[in-house]
Design brief:
alpha/beta; homodimer; Rossmann fold; about 325 residues; 434 Repressor (Amino-terminal Domain); 3 domains; 12 helices; 4-stranded parallel sheet; DNA-binding; about 15% strand
DNA sequence: CAAAAAAATGAAAACGATTTCAATGGGGAA
DNA sequence: TTCCCCATTGAAATCGTTTTCATTTTTTTG
């Protein structure tokens, strides 16, 4: 034996032709029950496993999809990846990981993937545009996360923000501040959460309170905390959970009690959120549906028999935890 | 054109043979400079890309390695994965992700991978033993994380614990407690950190203080906190960062000042560690070297020309942050 | 200058499956 | 009985490379 068993070995062992064995296994044509069971038996006995490369050569399907990602240290990325994996596995497809910190790595990975190695590409690299990716892919379908054209996936951040504001309002808060996130700004437009906040405040006739935490890091949150706590603000929408945790750290350090002094709403429901004290009330992106939709768009591009999903609008959901509470007016 | 350009197209376009083109590209035999440059030119012009499946068919190398992982929600896993990716990419190898929550999924993924789809397997599934994995892989090299036999990778948890204890001792702490981790227990042996702690305490003639946080979760840490703070313990080695953050949460809730009341040392340097207040002093596993070593063992198994790495002993390193401080005797 | 060595290229086999085209045999209908 | 159809199966082509074996041309050497 050559080390591994081929379909020819199975055929010879039974005295039938290769095509019979192939068809018995694939079920693509009628094979008598007797022969079929003999084949199954022989396959087991000889330990035959269909060869991946040979199969791919004919079918032109690898059952692999390349996923371009900038880092695995980012919990948002890994959560997304997990959901992509779940969605793809329901199509019996595996992910080939391409981690590219620099955009050029992304480009060369794309070239490497797109020579028949993968059936399609999921691109999550923020710097790599859909158009360029499609260009480089040379015919292999590409779907760029949150930026594909057909059957758009829109994330209604504004609606999420309104939910959060309504929640705070109901808790009695009126002096509500915001720390906008620059990472949610897209092609020239400001953070949609910020816009929604401004609109909503105007609607209620309350003057907006805007604080900045450039970079959106814990450190930035920590640094803006003092001016925030010095104001008479009673609740704040932080741009993300990291900024929120920076606020919390400074509060603990200064002996400011949370959430009594101030209610804090984070954004992203990152793993951070359950660890802070108090744990963060935050806006979560339902990544499951997002991934399912994105994957379905790709599946349609790969195989038109798969139907194109309906356009989907996603609204971030409020996860209420301990960092928010009813406002008690100290002057009463 | 059939949609994509083959090596035959390039050959015809130049009026040379397929083998000439193939050799010009691979460099496996001398080709006259003139012809070579013509080939390169034509490749560019026609947009030729070597076909993955056909190449694999001959070389029996896919440049892919399957990585079995139980979840991507676990930050330890993703950090490890990131390092695996880094180590593999230096061999121009990509990872095929196999997420298996249940062991049976792991088994079937292994079978799916090992029919020529990957050149090797990195198994990180705790439930899937090396022997069974090798059995299922049917000839494809498998390396099981931290459990491969040749060129062992030992992680000297005991040494890490001694480092942490020495650190606390130097800070003046004598009443040092431990919360052992059951997840570090291996084949019947208790958590090596726990053993090292007991030894060391005995050596110093100090009686050990043992607290339990079953499950090693934040919640478990939270629940054991009261009894810990009720004792006269001044420092504690928590089994992992989650447990440590549970302690911290309870302390904040009760108005217990940290690290003044108690120094806390975590374990794992998970993303949690920088987010708590105070940020956690913790023992970090240097995953880079670990991944490099593990990958090198696999590379050797795949291609004996790659040399087998020396056995490696890894010592967790202490990352000092804000959760530890010098002990000030309140009675003085 | 002839023979051997070296350099450059071509032709065809191999890789292991799928798929197309062709053939066989048995059973029912005319 | 003869013919046709259908159910089964075989033989061979195909996918696009790499690799082996063979050939031609050029250069070197005694």
């Amino acid at each position: 034996m050559n080390g591994h068993v081929t379909i020819a070995d199975v055929a010879n062992h039974l005295g039938v032709s290769k095509s019979t064995v192939s068809h018995a296994l694939s079920g693509k044509r009628r094979i008598s029950a007797e022969v079929r069971s003999q084949v199954m038996q022989a396959v087991k006995e000889l330990g035959y496993r269909p060869n991946f490369a040979a199969r791919v050569m004919n079918t032109r399907r690898t059952g692999l999809v390349g996923v371009l990602v900038d880092s695995l240290n980012n919990p948002h990325n890994t959560a997304l990846l997990e959901e992509f994996g779940r969605a793809l596995s329901s199509h019996s497809i595996q992910m080939v990981l391409g981690t590219a910190d620099r955009i050029d790595d992304g480009r060369s990975l794309l070239a490497k993937f797109c020579c028949g190695m993968v059936d399609g590409i999921l691109n999550t690299l923020p710097e790599l545009g859909e158009d360029e990716a499609v260009e480089l892919a040379g015919g292999i379908p590409v779907v760029t996360y949150r930026r594909h054209r057909e059957s758009p996936l829109v994330i209604d951040f504004a609606a999420g923000t309104r939910t959060a504001l309504a929640y705070l309002f109901k808790l009695g808060h009126r002096h509500i501040a915001i720390i906008p996130s620059d990472s949610r700004a897209q092609n020239g437009l400001p953070d949609p959460c910020f816009s929604a906040y401004c609109e909503q405040m105007e609607l209620m006739g309350i003057s907006p309170r805007i604080f900045q935490a450039p970079g959106g890091t814990l450190q930035a949150g920590y640094e803006v905390a003092d001016s925030l706590f010095a104001s008479d603000t009673t609740a704040v929408l932080a741009g993300n959970d990291a900024v929120a945790s920076g606020l919390i750290r400074r509060a603990i350090e200064c002996g400011i009690r949370l959430p009594e002094r101030m209610s804090i709403v984070g954004h992203d429901d990152s793993p951070i959120a359950v660890v802070t004290s108090p744990p963060l009330t935050t806006l979560r992106l339902p990544l499951g549906p997002i991934a399912t939709h994105t994957v379905q768009v790709l599946m349609h591009a790969i195989d038109p028999a798969e139907l194109m999903p309906e356009p989907l609008t996603i609204i971030p959901e409020l996860i209420a935890r301990g960092s928010t509470m009813r406002f008690n007016n100290p002057h009463k």
